[in-house]
Amino acid sequence: MIKQPTPLIDFTNLTYHYVRTNVNYVSYYKDGLWDEGQLQAEDSLRINILSTTFHYGQQAFEGMKAYRTKEGKIQLFRPYENAVRFQKSCQRIMMPPVSVEQFMDAVIRVVEQNSEFVPPYETQATLYIRPYMIGVGPNLVLAPSKEYIFGVVVMPVGLFFKSGLTPADFLVSEFDRAAPHGTGAVKIGGNYAASMYPNYIAKSQGFTDCIYLDPATHTRIDEGGAANFFAIRKDGVFVSPKSSSILPSITKLSLLDIAKNYLHLEVLETEIYIEDLTLFDEAATCGTAAIITPIGSLTHHDTVYHFGTKGQVGHVTKRLYEVLTGIQFGDITPPHNWILSIE
């Protein structure tokens, strides 16, 4: 039975700060095999000090959410996409990927056992789900570890930006998030560590976050520090960058489908040159955590590109947000296989 949210939790003031839940999932890989995995109440791990996750960054993760519908049911949004992307991330840095079946079983078990932490529908808050894998065991040599931990931890979260769909000011970073032909297309910690200092610089100058240009030529939009980029051209076309150095966002993948099949827009994945931003009426970043963050302005050296009416989210961006969240919370009929209900 799915437990309803407990009144002991204040779901109205959730942030992204840690909230301890009932259980998490842990599975160990040793001697070439994954064990069956188990749920544990302990929220810490004991691992060797020479684990490759510490010294060589051998680790990957995913970001997902569980949503409470108006009827009180719990559902996951496109979880199989996360499972497949997680496999690709693990393979890229020489970790043994778990099967889609084990990934899904772990996620479902943890959500079920923490179901009272899935916030009520009316709060529009969610249960964040963090699957991860790390290299463990004594290993000083620069080589893949022989032991690994796969785990899943969850916690209730509110809106990433409390202001909601309010246009934000972004700075084009002078730094690169990922290298050409590097690891930008997989979800590993090193990519995010590389974005911390540029993010700090942007915020210290009064910006919400930064946007990265392609690492090879620094002439094209790539993505944000933790989110993909998209823009709406003045002729109504939905455009998103195509690059081998950006993470294939499941949120962006979904928005491409929504723009085409729900809003009946033309959609393009192509290069977006920084000098061509005057062709666009709207711009935004998108990802699991923040969903959609409208961009009010984008500063590149001495040039400031403005989008839409100051302080107002663009019409298309707003509609994309409404349809996406409507699907996630069960208010709009989803495409086939987008939603998995937790019974």
Write a compact overview of the structure shown:
The protein is α+β, with helices and mostly antiparallel strands and 343 residues long. It is globular.
Written account of the structure:
With about 350 residues, the chain is of the alpha+beta class. It has two domains: about 10-160, Aminotransferase class 4, branched-chain amino acid transferase, N-terminal domain (D-amino Acid Aminotransferase, Chain A, domain 1), CATH 3.30.470.10; about 170-330, D-amino Acid Aminotransferase, subunit A, domain 2 (D-amino Acid Aminotransferase, Chain A, domain 2, Alpha-Beta Barrel). The chain is built from six helices and 18 strands. Strands 1, 2, 3, 4, 5, 6, 7, 8 and 18 form a nine-stranded antiparallel β-sheet that branches. Strands 9, 10, 11, 12, 13, 14, 15, 16 and 17 form a nine-stranded mixed β-sheet that branches. A hairpin with a 2-residue loop joins strand 1 and strand 2 (about 35). The protein is globular and about 55 Å long. It starts with about 25 loop residues before the first strand and ends with a strand.
